[in-house]
Fumarylacetoacetase-like C-terminal domain-containing protein (Marinobacterium nitratireducens), 233 residues
Amino acid sequence: MSDKLIFPAKPQTLTAIAGTDALFPVHRIFCVGRNYHAHAAEMGTSVDKTTQEPFYFTKHPSALIPAGAEISYPPQTGNYHYEMEFVVAIGKEGFEVAEADAEDLIFGYAAGLDMTRRDLQLKARETGRPWDLGKDFEESAVISPIVPKTQTGIVDSGAIELAVNGETRQKSELTKLIWNVREIIAHLSKFYHLQPGDLIYTGTPEGVGAVVAGDRITGFVEGVGELTLSIAK
Protein backbone atom coordinates (compact mmCIF):
# COMPACT_ATOMS: atom_id res chain seq x y z
CA MET A 1 0.00 0.00 0.00
CA SER A 2 2.77 2.47 0.93
CA ASP A 3 4.26 2.32 -2.58
CA LYS A 4 0.94 3.59 -3.96
CA LEU A 5 0.97 6.80 -1.90
CA ILE A 6 1.85 9.89 -3.93
CA PHE A 7 3.51 11.43 -0.83
CA PRO A 8 4.28 10.05 2.66
CA ALA A 9 1.25 9.75 4.94
CA LYS A 10 1.29 11.90 8.05
CA PRO A 11 2.03 9.92 11.22
CA GLN A 12 -0.67 9.07 13.76
CA THR A 13 -1.09 11.78 16.41
CA LEU A 14 -0.05 10.37 19.78
CA THR A 15 -0.03 11.83 23.27
CA ALA A 16 1.63 10.74 26.49
CA ILE A 17 0.03 8.74 29.28
CA ALA A 18 1.26 9.68 32.74
CA GLY A 19 3.41 7.14 34.56
CA THR A 20 4.13 4.94 31.56
CA ASP A 21 5.85 4.94 28.19
CA ALA A 22 2.59 3.82 26.56
CA LEU A 23 0.97 6.31 24.18
CA PHE A 24 -2.63 7.34 23.51
CA PRO A 25 -3.50 7.44 19.77
CA VAL A 26 -5.70 10.47 19.15
CA HIS A 27 -8.73 9.99 16.92
CA ARG A 28 -10.70 13.27 17.14
CA ILE A 29 -10.77 16.44 19.23
CA PHE A 30 -14.17 17.77 20.30
CA CYS A 31 -14.46 21.08 22.17
CA VAL A 32 -17.51 22.24 24.15
CA GLY A 33 -18.40 25.90 23.69
CA ARG A 34 -19.60 28.21 26.48
CA ASN A 35 -19.74 25.66 29.27
CA TYR A 36 -19.19 28.08 32.19
CA HIS A 37 -21.75 30.81 32.83
CA ALA A 38 -19.14 33.45 33.69
CA HIS A 39 -17.18 32.79 30.48
CA ALA A 40 -20.36 32.97 28.38
CA ALA A 41 -21.08 36.33 30.01
CA GLU A 42 -17.62 37.71 29.26
CA MET A 43 -18.14 36.67 25.63
CA GLY A 44 -21.38 38.65 25.54
CA THR A 45 -23.82 35.74 25.67
CA SER A 46 -25.78 33.73 28.22
CA VAL A 47 -26.68 30.07 28.57
CA ASP A 48 -30.01 28.70 29.75
CA LYS A 49 -29.59 25.00 30.35
CA THR A 50 -33.35 24.48 30.50
CA THR A 51 -33.85 25.57 26.90
CA GLN A 52 -30.44 25.07 25.24
CA GLU A 53 -28.24 22.11 24.42
CA PRO A 54 -24.44 21.93 24.44
CA PHE A 55 -22.69 22.87 21.21
CA TYR A 56 -19.31 21.84 19.88
CA PHE A 57 -16.50 22.69 17.52
CA THR A 58 -13.63 20.46 16.48
CA LYS A 59 -9.89 20.68 16.08
CA HIS A 60 -7.86 18.45 13.80
CA PRO A 61 -5.66 15.97 15.70
CA SER A 62 -2.62 17.47 13.97
CA ALA A 63 -3.23 20.67 16.01
CA LEU A 64 -2.34 18.80 19.21
CA ILE A 65 0.96 19.58 20.93
CA PRO A 66 2.34 18.42 24.29
CA ALA A 67 2.49 20.58 27.38
CA GLY A 68 5.90 22.11 27.88
CA ALA A 69 6.29 23.13 24.23
CA GLU A 70 7.45 26.44 22.86
CA ILE A 71 5.36 27.60 19.91
CA SER A 72 5.30 30.52 17.51
CA TYR A 73 2.73 33.29 17.63
CA PRO A 74 0.23 32.23 14.94
CA PRO A 75 -0.30 34.08 11.67
CA GLN A 76 -3.14 36.44 10.75
CA THR A 77 -4.14 37.40 14.29
CA GLY A 78 -3.52 40.28 16.66
CA ASN A 79 -5.60 38.86 19.52
CA TYR A 80 -4.27 35.42 20.48
CA HIS A 81 -6.07 33.98 23.52
CA TYR A 82 -5.57 31.16 26.01
CA GLU A 83 -8.44 29.02 27.29
CA MET A 84 -7.66 26.60 30.12
CA GLU A 85 -9.68 23.37 29.94
CA PHE A 86 -10.39 20.03 31.62
CA VAL A 87 -9.91 17.28 29.03
CA VAL A 88 -11.62 13.89 29.00
CA ALA A 89 -10.02 11.04 27.04
CA ILE A 90 -12.37 8.38 25.68
CA GLY A 91 -11.26 4.74 25.84
CA LYS A 92 -14.32 2.77 24.68
CA GLU A 93 -16.81 2.93 21.84
CA GLY A 94 -20.22 4.37 22.59
CA PHE A 95 -23.30 5.53 20.73
CA GLU A 96 -26.47 6.96 22.29
CA VAL A 97 -24.96 6.38 25.71
CA ALA A 98 -27.10 6.95 28.80
CA GLU A 99 -25.76 9.43 31.35
CA ALA A 100 -25.64 6.62 33.91
CA ASP A 101 -23.24 4.69 31.65
CA ALA A 102 -21.18 7.60 30.35
CA GLU A 103 -18.32 7.27 32.82
CA ASP A 104 -17.62 3.76 31.54
CA LEU A 105 -16.31 5.28 28.29
CA ILE A 106 -13.66 7.38 30.05
CA PHE A 107 -10.03 6.28 29.79
CA GLY A 108 -8.59 9.22 31.69
CA TYR A 109 -8.19 12.95 32.11
CA ALA A 110 -5.76 15.74 31.23
CA ALA A 111 -5.24 19.48 31.47
CA GLY A 112 -5.50 21.31 28.17
CA LEU A 113 -5.38 24.65 26.38
CA ASP A 114 -7.72 25.68 23.59
CA MET A 115 -5.62 28.41 21.95
CA THR A 116 -7.78 30.80 19.97
CA ARG A 117 -7.35 33.50 17.34
CA ARG A 118 -10.07 35.53 19.04
CA ASP A 119 -10.31 38.27 16.44
CA LEU A 120 -10.92 35.70 13.70
CA GLN A 121 -13.43 33.82 15.85
CA LEU A 122 -15.43 36.96 16.62
CA LYS A 123 -15.36 38.07 12.99
CA ALA A 124 -16.78 34.68 11.99
CA ARG A 125 -19.41 34.83 14.75
CA GLU A 126 -20.56 38.28 13.68
CA THR A 127 -21.06 37.16 10.08
CA GLY A 128 -22.64 33.80 10.93
CA ARG A 129 -19.70 31.82 9.56
CA PRO A 130 -17.91 28.79 11.04
CA TRP A 131 -15.22 29.31 13.68
CA ASP A 132 -12.54 27.18 12.00
CA LEU A 133 -10.02 29.96 11.33
CA GLY A 134 -10.29 31.12 14.93
CA LYS A 135 -10.15 27.71 16.57
CA ASP A 136 -8.74 24.98 14.34
CA PHE A 137 -5.17 25.87 13.38
CA GLU A 138 -1.65 24.57 13.93
CA GLU A 139 -0.52 24.17 17.56
CA SER A 140 -3.89 25.28 18.91
CA ALA A 141 -4.62 22.30 21.19
CA VAL A 142 -2.24 21.76 24.10
CA ILE A 143 -2.46 18.73 26.38
CA SER A 144 -0.72 17.40 29.48
CA PRO A 145 -0.04 13.67 29.84
CA ILE A 146 -3.31 11.76 30.25
CA VAL A 147 -3.84 10.33 33.73
CA PRO A 148 -5.79 7.04 33.54
CA LYS A 149 -9.09 6.89 35.38
CA THR A 150 -7.74 3.82 37.19
CA GLN A 151 -5.39 6.19 39.03
CA THR A 152 -7.69 9.17 39.63
CA GLY A 153 -11.11 7.62 40.00
CA ILE A 154 -13.99 9.68 38.63
CA VAL A 155 -13.04 13.37 38.50
CA ASP A 156 -16.05 15.65 38.85
CA SER A 157 -14.68 18.42 41.07
CA GLY A 158 -11.48 20.35 41.65
CA ALA A 159 -9.82 23.66 40.89
CA ILE A 160 -8.91 24.77 37.37
CA GLU A 161 -6.44 27.65 37.08
CA LEU A 162 -4.17 29.44 34.59
CA ALA A 163 -1.48 32.07 34.97
CA VAL A 164 0.47 34.17 32.46
CA ASN A 165 4.00 35.09 33.51
CA GLY A 166 3.09 34.11 37.07
CA GLU A 167 -0.07 36.24 37.26
CA THR A 168 -3.31 34.29 37.79
CA ARG A 169 -5.80 34.97 35.02
CA GLN A 170 -8.29 32.09 35.28
CA LYS A 171 -9.50 30.48 38.51
CA SER A 172 -12.61 28.36 38.84
CA GLU A 173 -14.00 24.95 39.81
CA LEU A 174 -15.04 21.96 37.70
CA THR A 175 -18.32 21.95 39.62
CA LYS A 176 -19.19 25.15 37.73
CA LEU A 177 -19.40 23.34 34.38
CA ILE A 178 -22.88 23.98 32.99
CA TRP A 179 -22.99 20.51 31.46
CA ASN A 180 -20.95 18.02 33.44
CA VAL A 181 -18.85 15.26 31.90
CA ARG A 182 -21.60 12.63 32.05
CA GLU A 183 -24.05 14.97 30.33
CA ILE A 184 -21.52 15.94 27.67
CA ILE A 185 -20.63 12.35 26.79
CA ALA A 186 -24.29 11.29 26.66
CA HIS A 187 -25.25 14.26 24.49
CA LEU A 188 -22.26 14.07 22.12
CA SER A 189 -22.85 10.34 21.63
CA LYS A 190 -26.26 11.10 20.11
CA PHE A 191 -24.48 12.67 17.13
CA TYR A 192 -21.25 10.67 16.89
CA HIS A 193 -20.18 7.11 17.48
CA LEU A 194 -17.58 7.94 20.12
CA GLN A 195 -14.36 6.01 19.66
CA PRO A 196 -11.26 5.16 21.68
CA GLY A 197 -8.86 8.02 21.09
CA ASP A 198 -11.45 10.80 21.12
CA LEU A 199 -10.60 13.81 23.29
CA ILE A 200 -13.23 16.15 24.72
CA TYR A 201 -12.15 19.63 25.82
CA THR A 202 -14.97 20.48 28.23
CA GLY A 203 -14.90 24.30 28.12
CA THR A 204 -13.07 27.19 29.74
CA PRO A 205 -13.92 29.37 32.73
CA GLU A 206 -13.88 33.16 32.77
CA GLY A 207 -10.70 35.19 32.56
CA VAL A 208 -9.63 34.44 29.00
CA GLY A 209 -7.26 36.95 27.48
CA ALA A 210 -4.48 37.67 25.07
CA VAL A 211 -0.85 36.60 25.14
CA VAL A 212 2.07 37.97 23.14
CA ALA A 213 5.45 36.71 22.01
CA GLY A 214 7.65 35.96 25.00
CA ASP A 215 4.80 35.09 27.38
CA ARG A 216 4.76 31.89 29.42
CA ILE A 217 1.49 30.17 30.33
CA THR A 218 1.14 27.79 33.28
CA GLY A 219 -2.00 26.01 34.39
CA PHE A 220 -3.42 23.03 36.17
CA VAL A 221 -6.52 20.98 36.82
CA GLU A 222 -6.51 19.78 40.41
CA GLY A 223 -5.85 16.07 40.72
CA VAL A 224 -5.32 15.72 36.97
CA GLY A 225 -2.28 17.54 35.69
CA GLU A 226 -0.23 20.65 35.09
CA LEU A 227 0.96 22.29 31.88
CA THR A 228 3.19 25.01 30.56
CA LEU A 229 3.34 26.72 27.19
CA SER A 230 5.81 29.31 25.97
CA ILE A 231 5.17 31.75 23.12
CA ALA A 232 8.46 32.20 21.29
CA LYS A 233 9.96 35.67 21.00
Observations:
- The chain has a mean pLDDT of 97.
- The radius of gyration is 17 Å.
- Residues 160 and 221 are 5 Å apart (CA to CA).
